[in-house]
Amino acid sequence: MGFLLSLMLCHHHLLLLFCLVLTAVTSLKAGESSAILTVLQKHCVQCHGQDGKVKGKVNFLEIKDVSALQQHPDLLADLIEVIDFQEMPPEDEPQLSPEARASLLTELKSLSVSAKSSYAHTPMRRMNRFQYDNAVVDLFGLKGVVFSLPERMMREHKNYFKPETGKMADTVTVGSRPLGKSQMIEKRLAGVAPFPQDLRAEHGYDNRGDHLSLSPLLMESFLKLAQSIVESDDFTEMNVGIWPSFFAKPDQPQDIKGEVRARLRHFLTLAYRQSVEEPLLERYTKYVITQLDAGSSFTDAMKGAAAAAISSPKFLYLYDESHDSEGTQPINDFELASRLSFFLWGSLPDQELLDLAQADELNKPEVIEAQFARMLADQKLKRFCDSFPSQWLQLERIISSAPNRDKFPGFYFLKYRDSMHMMLEPLLIFETVLIENQPITQLIDSDFTYRSSLLQEAYGELAVDAEKKGRNEVVVLHFRRMPVTDRRNGGVITNAAVMTMTSGPERTQPITRGAWVAGVIFNNPPEPPPADVPALGEKPPEGQEHLTLRERLAMHRERSDCRGCHEQIDPLGFALENYDPIGNWRNHYENGRDVDMSGTLFRKHSFSNVIEFKDAILAEKDRFTRGLAGHLLSFALARELGPADQLALDQIAERTFKDNYKMQTLLKQVILSEPFQSKTNPRTASDSRNGDIPVAKQK
User: For residue range 321-365, what is the model confidence (pLDDT) as tens digits?
Assistant: First the structure.
């Protein structure tokens, strides 16, 4: 949580911070924002500035007036966050009244708006391998994929994904990549191997700019990869859609150079997502003509140019053009086209987007809204569903889940695990909410779900209906849409996948579950625990076998430096304690003690069962909407959000509220937001975007 959460590890500081807030609330009047500053200097400098003490790397003695406070947007953002999430004052201190808290938040947000800073710069970054695969497929019109990727967790065996209909199929036939080699049987280019998988940022995504560098070694591998693509035995007229218009030899053209130049102009415009500069076009044209003069076939010469294009930095890198201003500027239409396409399609803009960009029409509100609607109805939207929801929900964690075989034998089916069925359920729920434009509250408490026969059987008491069709679905899985009437089911929180991946081999892990809910649902991930805090054992030590897990953790949290985070995440984790380590329902622990999952959400919504917990989250649906908006905006911009983005998140969420929390409205407001359509990229003395164009080696 940044600066203030680190401060919350200190009980003494918590008391001082409480005094700060309480005094500020009682002294604030209209136009007296300086009262906050007075309280900071009066009550906090003894830990933050006085006698050289600078806890949390903040020196309040340096903040002399409101303008100085406004120059610290990160500090303001942290203050707003911990107050809004009621993470302070601590539980054992007097609490603020709702009116007092609202008054303080209003004052701090007013300061934050007036202190608005520039949006963070998205660094120049290369495509990740999921985007690279999609981009090459679209550029060449491939009938298949370049290479199979585990990032795509769900495989379509029959085309159920039809966003243009606005309706999800009642039965879908799918597969899961981690099931094994049988799931890799898809049409792809022979002899082409993917480069290493890109790591995800902490609390982020695998498209994050600061994680996607390009070393000289990787650059060389891209040259080899590009060559292997165009030389693959499957790279033929039958599998390459642009073959007739690009690779096929023209029928006795009078001007071969003009024909090559025209073909390259169109191809490079698509590949580089912008108009092609004449010197660059001339270089590519000269290369092809030189190869033809040396005796190469027309097709081979064009393959060489194509390989050079898809290994060029202009293809591999995503970036915003620099500008002369130090502040924030609108992105140009070509940059907007790329942001739209890589957000919703995970790939290059198509010809229609580029034509609108060329005409300087794409930036018009009515045009961008029309393009948004068109893109949502396109099959390529499946790539958004293959990328964002699995990362948002952190579903890759289930692949390494290994419940104890002796305690949970039903989890394992032959050499395949139920987890591979589990992970598809929340993904299908997400796709349905998106395609059918349902309220995002369905992600919390849906009135439907999708399950295979095997998954139905595995749920036991939580099975949606009694129908069983045996355990013979291994390679191809048939998931049926089912109504949910028992609210212990439904949504992405209480499904078996999340319950399993947030548990250990022997027991549930309420802290892990609570941290997952805080980060995924509310976009408020806790700080990592102190390095010297020992983990709670999977099994209770001798003499503690009679204790419940809540009682064991109560002993664990006695440390003062653990209390702040536990107060935040424990209620969220214990709310799910009725679900065992593989997501089955239980009322008692193995020692016979009753499961106690009661708690309070944000210190104001009490619950005594999981249905009441869902009701508590739905009572905070505005907070969930803003949190999901933050995830989507961060994914769209490929960067961590900063203080300047917070006002935009408020606006995105508010406009989504007004349209009944519809999923497509939330997405549309993200692309209409100022951060999505802006950049902060001042020109530097060394700024250059026209690096050398690598040319593929010939056979």
Answer: 887 777 789 999 999 999 999 999 999 999 999 999 999 999 999
Can you tell me which residue has the tokens 């270089």?
Answer: 283
Residue-wise pLDDT for 460-517, tens only, equals 899 987 555 544 555 567 899 999 999 999 999 999 999 999 999 999 999 999 999 9
In the chain, the percentage of residues whose pLDDT exceeds 90 is: 54
Q: Give the Cα separation of 16 and 32 in Å (integer).
A: 21
Backbone angles phi, psi at 526, to 5 degrees: -75, 160
DSSP type of residue 40: H
Specify the pLDDT at position 197. 82
pLDDT for 269-304, tens place per residue?
A: 999 999 999 999 999 999 999 999 999 999 999 999
The kind and range of the H/E element at 230 are helix 216-231
For residue 23, report the phi and psi dihedrals to the nearest 5 degrees: -65, -40
Torsion angle in degrees (nearest 10) through CA of 603, 609, 614, 616: -30
Residue 582 Cα distances to 115, 159, 402, 458, 614, angstroms: 48, 30, 10, 9, 20
Distance in angstroms (rounded) separating the CA atoms of residues 334 and 273: 7
* 278 close to 264: Cβ distance less than 8 angstroms: no
Question: What stretches of 359-446 show up as alpha helix (H) in DSSP?
Answer: 365-376, 382-392, 419-422, 424-435
Query: What is the domain partition of the chain in residue ranges?
Result: 3-114, 123-147+188-328+680-699, 150-185+378-503, 329-377, 621-679
Torsion of CA 180, 183, 186, 191, to 10 degrees: -10
Closest CA to 303 of 250, 252, 264, 348: 264
First-to-last C-alpha distance (Å) of the chain: 55
Residue with tokens 């940022």: 201
Do 146 and 133 meet the contact criterion of CB atoms below 8 Å apart? yes
Q: Is the pLDDT of residue 41 over 70?
A: no
Instruction: Show the beta-strand stretches assigned E in 471-571.
Output: 477-483
Specify the DSSP element, H or E, that contains 174. strand 171-176
Enumerate residues 6+ apart whose C-beta is below 8 A from 275: 269, 334, 358
Is residue 663 within 8 A of residue 440, CB to CB? The reply is yes
Q: What is the mean pLDDT of residues 650-654?
A: 96
Alpha helices for 273-393 (secondary structure H) = 278-293, 298-310, 313-316, 333-344, 351-358, 365-376, 382-392
Contacting residues for 380 by C-beta, under 8 A, at least 6 apart: 134, 138, 344, 345, 346, 347
Is 656:624 a contact under the CB 8 Å cutoff? Answer: no
Nearest-angstrom CA–CA distance, 44 and 17: 7
The single-letter DSSP state of residue 57 is G
pLDDT band at 696 (very low <50, low <70, confident <90, very high): very low
pLDDT tens digit sequence for 560-575? 555 666 777 889 999 9
Q: What is the mean pLDDT of residues 390-403?
A: 91
- pLDDT of amino acid 185: 61
If you write DSSP's letter for every residue of 239-265 in order, what string do you get? TBTTIIIIISPPSS-S-HHHHHHHHHH
Are 518 and 524 a contacting pair, CB within 8 Å? Answer: yes
